[in-house]
Design goal:
By secondary structure, the chain is α+β, with helices and mostly antiparallel strands. The protein contains seven helices and seven strands, in the order H-H-H-E-E-E-E-H-E-H-E-H-E-H. The chain is about 40% helix and about 25% strand. The longest helix has 15 residues, at about 30-40. It binds zinc ion.
Length: about 210
């Protein structure tokens, strides 16, 4: 069992760029069993009408909302075109906080300085999905996206994320705050460059919370 879990983890975490063999994909039948157990522990009857299909629904939902682990690198197709700075704003994302397994969601803004190539917006959206459809924390999500984009050879990248966390809103201190995180790489690590790009993102974003 432990070996099986380790093999799965290695296959998932070690492979950001290749397709994972199907035997490592989520075992929906096992998820169903585990959710049924959880329902019992919560103090409910898993056979009652409203709950009897819940394990199956959650199994299918988890395959969808955690499919970022199986995502292939989506940045291989680029357009040959140059530009000073490309800014993609307000990319909506949904993720699951790894501390509480509750949703956190919001908008991601990506700015990069191309090196002769630009990426289609759909590629950037899929890049965001690749890293958001996992158990995550917002800080790492921001860094994952910046690192993968920077690894493509662009001159600089800034990724900014604004998000609400249900684990903060519905439990604990019940704080309504929005968290903002950012990661910069390459030429944008320079303070002045970073500030001018951040101002560009701020000025044009529909979200004024940062
Ligand atoms: Zn949390």
């Amino acid at each position: 069992m432990l070996h099986n879990i380790t093999t799965r983890l290695n296959a998932r975490l070690g492979s950001n760029t290749r397709k994972i063999p199907s035997e490592y994909l989520m075992d929906k039948e096992r998820v169903k069993k585990l959710v049924r157990e959880l329902i019992i522990e919560i103090g409910e009857d898993p056979t009652r009408e409203g709950l009897k299909d819940t394990p199956d629904r959650i199994g299918r939902m988890y395959q969808e909302i955690f499919n970022g682990y199986e995502s292939e690198s989506e940045l291989s197709v680029q357009f040959s075109e140059d530009s000073d700075t490309v800014v993609a704003r307000d990319i909506q994302f949904y993720s699951m906080c790894e501390h509480h397994m509750l949703p956190f969601f919001g908008k991601i803004h990506i700015a990069y300085s191309p090196n002769g190539m630009v990426f289609g917006i759909s590629k950037l959206v899929r890049l965001v999905e690749k890293f958001s459809k996992r158990l995550q924390i917002q800080e790492r999500l921001t860094k994952n996206i910046a690192d993968e984009l920077f690894a493509q050879g662009v001159k600089g990248v800034i990724v900014v994320a604004d998000a609400e966390h249900l684990c903060m809103k519905m439990r604990g201190v019940k704080n309504d705050a929005t968290l903002t995180t950012s990661a910069s790489r390459g030429v944008y690590e320079n303070k002045e460059e970073k500030e001018s790009i951040m101002a560009m993102i701020r000025k044009t974003s529909s979200n004024s919370s940062f």
